[in-house]
Amino acid sequence: MEIKQVEFVISNTNIAKCPQDKKPEYAFIGRSNVGKSSLINCLANNKKLAHTSSKPGKTQLINHFIVDETWYLVDLPGYGYAKVSKNSRQKFQKMIEDYILERPNLINLFVLIDSRIPPQQIDLEFMEWLGENQVPFSMVYTKIDKLKSNQLNKNLHTYHKKMLESWAEIPVYFATSAETGAGKTEILSYIAEINRKLEVN
After folding, report:
1. Angle, CA 66 vertex, CA 63 and CA 23 arms, to 5°
2. 110: left (phi over 0), alpha (psi -120 to 50) or beta
3. pLDDT tens for residues 109-138?
4. Which residue has the higher pLDDT, 197 or 93?
5. Is 75 helix (H, G, I), strand (E, B) or coil?
6. Res. 89 pLDDT band, cuts 50 70 90
7. Does residue 85 have a pLDDT over 70?
8. Residue 186 has pLDDT above 90, yes or no
9. For residue range 60-72, what is the model confidence (pLDDT) as tens digits?
């Protein structure tokens, strides 16, 4: 599956202002600097779609993009060490939580994780929170082009071992690279398959 057309629709801080139609939404989130904007641009075949920056925390709004007029790709603010005030951070957190918990159109949340580093408590706790709130999500390992395959396999094994300390099974996961396009087809095929099932139902 290839995306043919992506158009920016709206940015906002209030879920009440999100698009009012019933099209399915697939949202992307991760710690600041995990490579979210680059991956979104890779999926969309558009290097300028999501704003990339060397400074973490640039996405500060809920950004909706309509894909092939059938579903929304949603770019959510990152969590973690963005250099913003405590007050701003709390606003981001509430905005993200409101969207994730209250947006009926949200079908799946893609949680981005840097494949190069050990499991981070902030990511593990965030996924625990998603599980507790029964939010459907998938794990997306980023920047796999920076690792040799044996190191990547070792890192994923370490991560999954850590996850299994509190999870009965590993959620659906993808290994990706915005540089090489690895994992792009798998993610888009996964979305297409879910959309097909939604149409049947």
Report:
1. 100
2. beta
3. 999 999 999 999 999 999 999 999 999 999
4. 197
5. strand
6. low
7. no
8. yes
9. 789 999 999 999 9
- What residues does each domain of the chain span? 6-200
Q: For domain 6-200, is the CATH number 1.20.950.20?
A: no
- In three state form, how does the secondary structure of 124-179 look? HHHHHHHHHCCCCEEEEEECHHHCCHHHHHHHHHHHHHHHCCCCCCCCCEEECCCC
Indicate the SS3 state at residue 7.
Answer: strand
Does the CA dihedral 12-13-16-18 come out positive or negative? positive
Could you give the C-alpha distances from 129 to 2, 99, 181, in angstroms and in order? 32, 14, 30
φ, ψ of residue 134 in degrees (nearest 5)? 55, 45
